[in-house]
Amino acid sequence: MGDGHLLVLMADHGPACLVRVDAVAGGFQSVAPRDRVGSVEALAHRGGTTVVVLNRPDTAGELYRVDGDVGGTLTALTAFNREAFRDREVPHHRWVHCANPDYDEVEGVLVTPQGATGALPLIAVPHRGPEAADVLTFRFDHQYRAGLGYAILLVTYRGSIAYGAEWQGVIRGDWGPRERADLMAGVDHLVAQGIADPARLFI
Question: pLDDT tens track of the chain, all 203 residues?
């Protein structure tokens, strides 16, 4: 950036974020997304202007200009998907936290129909990798299934990126049991909360 700082994309507790790195003193500060809703999928910077592609559940991918440094604002430059979302109800997306067998908690994303009440049929969706992560972004398959009345659970189990080297590396040489334990901890949590119907669980 010409001021001793670098702009980079870094996965931080789920979403890929635009971060400002101090190339001299070290350390970084997140610029966007600041509310953990959405994930930055691309970055361009030229002539003092920074533009990102931000994917959110309610807009899918759109271009935004980053105004100001940390604590600045995002100004939408495009609305390519506005028509696709017009007159459509976007399912509710939120982060969930639950206890797991070996750590304080495991985090995940829960997608549910807007206004849903009572215990819902639940689809637990393991992510690829396992070195990947789930975030609050637009995914057609998740929104489609939520539109049919399902709750969708995506757990960022051990082995996932974006939660530190220990979290990612603990499964090295032993894939499977920790991921399963963390995924099932999320399912058990939603059943205990009355969100998921224990007689209608799917994967």
Answer: 556 788 889 988 889 999 888 888 888 888 888 788 999 999 999 888 999 999 999 999 999 999 866 556 899 999 999 999 999 999 999 999 999 877 778 999 999 999 999 999 999 999 987 788 899 999 999 999 999 999 999 999 999 998 889 989 999 999 888 999 999 999 999 999 999 999 999 99
Q: How far is CA 137 from the centre of its chain?
A: 6
Contact 77, 109 (CB under 8 A): no
Q: In 3-state terms, the chain is what percent helix, strand and coil (to 5)? A: 15, 40, 45
Give me 13's structure tokens: 């507790």
Question: Peptide bond preceding 33: is omega within 30 degrees of 0, i.e. cis?
Answer: yes
User: In whole angstroms, what is the distance from residue 14 CA to residue 65 CA?
Assistant: 22
State in Å, rounded, how far the first CA of the chain is from the last one.
45
Among the CATH numbers 3.80.10.10, 3.40.50.1820, 3.40.50.10490, 3.90.190.20, which is that of 92-202? Answer: 3.40.50.1820
Task: Say what the pTM is.
Answer: 0.90
What span, in angstroms and rounded, lies between the C-alpha atoms of 124 and 183? 8
* Pair 17, 33: CB distance under 8 Å: yes
Strands (E) across the chain are located at 5-11, 16-22, 28-32, 39-46, 49-56, 60-67, 73-76, 92-98, 106-112, 120-124, 151-155, 196-202
